[in-house]
């Protein structure tokens, strides 16, 4: 049954650009990967990072810079962004895991703020203007990602879409493998009972740090993808609002579930695009969603569904 | 479970399909669609914002609501001064809404992003709000027009006037993004050319609440002139706080390099009196401007700023060009716009050049003393009218790729 | 910029001016954290709410109640705004926060984050993001005083003095009085305090109310200096979080002293290397975390 579900999801992903505005779909994929990466930390290690925008946005600047200024091909740009996010994850992670619980959240938040200020001030980021006009380039130097194909009267950037979709699947597969590996089991053990994990001889800090780096790297990959899709890296992507948004997506969909972040990202991104006409009421609606979620269903959509069905989703 | 999942997928499919239909229904090329994308809620919303959309809607109405027998539609959106929102919105408008022309575009960062996209998608952008000269230089496209004013004209006209009046040493307070940098750079050029010198500058983020520490730096530089290379709420905040610290009493003068009527309104004449600055439009210039301003006031409850009046004029001339060209094909319309004379209540001696710069008469303004003012909006007087050749960057200096050399 | 005595002192004075806001806000956070174990993310939004109560009381309350000439003056606002916001806080605690005590403390953080978004979003819809001026500054406090090295606005001087009084008053009550001893005991062992006949849930509610009332008080103080804007709190709160981490959560004196010091350090940085002034607090936080993870005044848990 699980395999069937995956096949259906992949099929939907493959045909989606013919039915839905492709840029919307790609945005969705970026945020779904971002939320899934975040979930590795919160859902499977019990660590609430409030600074994940640093990796998402930081990587989008690096990718943008590599592609625009250094003239690298897009796949190398994404790789560069991901590696950068991993390194940044290592630095921030090493500092943050010295504290636990609420302290961990606040330390990540404050460290991410440093990244925000660097993005604001550094000469190569374009400050308030952001890094604009990032070229999509040629994949492996061969396939033009800007190429669009006219289907039914509207031009569809299919090359780019399938590149983004492939990256998403790769990232999601890595997460899936991480969670279901022995490593993932140890993470869960730490989440459930840290002193016990310590007494069993696990080097808890190292496990947490590795989980943090994996999560940061994949969040970075999502940010790199976004900078290619929107051809822009901006302060919004590194701001703490984005960090909050990814917490909401994960919480709403279901912390610690595989499908939860996808559902959460889908809900939030759809809300944002459907309600873009109501302007800043979106913030209010997102806030209300947050409050309801925390008060009434802390398991999220998928978590509650799983409870009803008595099955882990 | 399996049954349930198939149902979920069915629902998902229905959602996807209805989504498609909604998009398909929005496809209509039998309409000329104008998008007003500007700051509707932020630091620049009083000088642009909804008023810019009012200007555009008035123009469409005055034109008769149709062009070449097809309806004209206006849509508006708030870019919140964020380049990413501006760019995403414009992309959606070009891809899905079939928007033919985007105007407004206050905030140079947003303007640059949208103009670049317009170049790629072959759609016209008529910028009435943003100021950076980059728009008609490195960043110009075959489809971009910069309509009202730019930092070159502001810096040149104001800078020269102040230096001639003896303001030789300057310190800048600069908004830290494309617009502020460009304004500081252009003003510096003319201050130096006039024999003045720059003692330093400090950059502040857009929308700064507390200018005190920047003002103190300006104060300790000892410069005669503190040049404000910012706009809107930032300019008014800086001027108010300078008074709080008694800076203006110590022989230092604040010069606002970009000031709108609405800023003077919020400062009050007693604070702002005597200030000189450059503008592309003043509502009380002659009968035609007053007539327009009265009609605008009836709708918007404020007199039009140069951005808002410019949006009217830009829209009107865009529609005229479509009518004259007999098509809304962007290449043909652009050729027409660049060849015709731009002349109305807003633009005097107007002409759109190869680099997209609409050159027209600019004005050196002075804020009236409270005693001189005869009404709520009687704020300014025109000190000098500056011809296009004396105000704008010569075409020969432009680095725009559209300029044939 | 040269390092003259005058420039350094002026910027440090301005830094102290910012520092008292950090102190009063982080003090509120510390009081709340001490008893509720919740990091109140809505603190910035409630600070903003306090400023708006003052602003609207001055401009709109009169017309609303049919007395167009009535303006809530500055002195009244200093009392009324904290009361109003304190009441809002009590409602928040009673209806929402109290349901979460039995779960992970992180949910408290998330809930208050949601509340912050709601409050900020609502105000963004009705008010200009660039801020509205609060013109009710009393005449007594306008003008500037010559401090020798600079002209310093009287109002800012008043803000520094009154904030310090409020901060140290709070410290005195909590650390030196019987009421305070119950509070502190409640932090350590709620069951024991209950056995003494103290109504612990009420004490928690009132503590939250007092903590956010402090934020509102700071908001009113800030209103005449900065424009009153919907984002004034969100710009502040992250810095205050860093202050709290540096000082050590839950330490009353720690949060006050750290707030003041960091404000001055920030001011000093503006003279030495201005671009770093917005990051210097966070850099200090990193160093403190490396050397003393529990914060300067914190106890190791």
Average pLDDT across residues of chain A? 88
Helix content of chain A: over 70%
Biggest sheet record of chain A: 2 strands, antiparallel
Number of helices of chain B: 14
Helix/strand order of chain B, N-terminal first = HEHEEHEHEEHEHEHEHEHHEHHHEEEEEH
Task: Please provide the count of β strands of chain A.
Answer: 6
CATH evolutionary superfamily of the largest domain in chain B: Response regulator
Gyration radius from CA atoms of chain A, angstroms: 19 Å
Tell me the Rg of chain B in angstroms.
22 Å
Low-confidence stretches of chain B: 1-28
The number of domains of chain B is 2
| Quaternary structure state of the chains depicted | heterotrimer
Q: Indicate the structural class of chain A.
A: mainly alpha
Give me the secondary-structure category of chain B: alpha/beta
| Topology order of chain A in helix (H) and strand (E) letters | HHHHHEEEEEHHHHEHHHHH
Helix percentage range of chain B: 40-55%
Low-confidence stretches of chain A: none
Strand content of chain A: under 5%
Pair with the most extensive interface? A-C, 41 and 41 residues
**Beta-sheet strand percentage of chain B?**
15-25%
Task: Give your account of this protein's structure.
The complex is a heterotrimer of chains A (313), B (405) and C (301). Chain A has 313 residues and is mainly α. Chain A is built from 14 helices and six strands. In chain A, strand 4 and strand 5 form a beta hairpin. Chain A is globular and about 60 Å long. Chain B has 405 residues and is α/β, with parallel strands linked by helices. Chain B folds into two domains: 194 residues, 3-Layer(aba) Sandwich (Rossmann fold); 153 residues, 3-Layer(aba) Sandwich (Rossmann fold), CATH 3.40.50.2300. In chain B, the strands form four sheets. In chain B, strands 2-3-1-4-5-6 form a six-stranded mixed sheet, with helices on both faces. In chain B, strands 8-7-9-10 form a four-stranded parallel sheet. A three-stranded antiparallel sheet of chain B has the order 11-15-16. The N and C termini of chain B lie far apart (71 Å). The N terminus of chain B is likely disordered. By secondary structure, chain C is mainly α. Chain C has a two-stranded antiparallel sheet. The radius of gyration of chain C is 20 Å and the shape is globular. The model of chain C has no long low-confidence stretch (mean pLDDT 87). Classes of the chains: A mainly alpha (313), B alpha/beta (405), C mainly alpha (301). At the A-C interface, helix 5, helix 11 and helix 13 of A face helix 5, helix 10 and helix 12 of C.
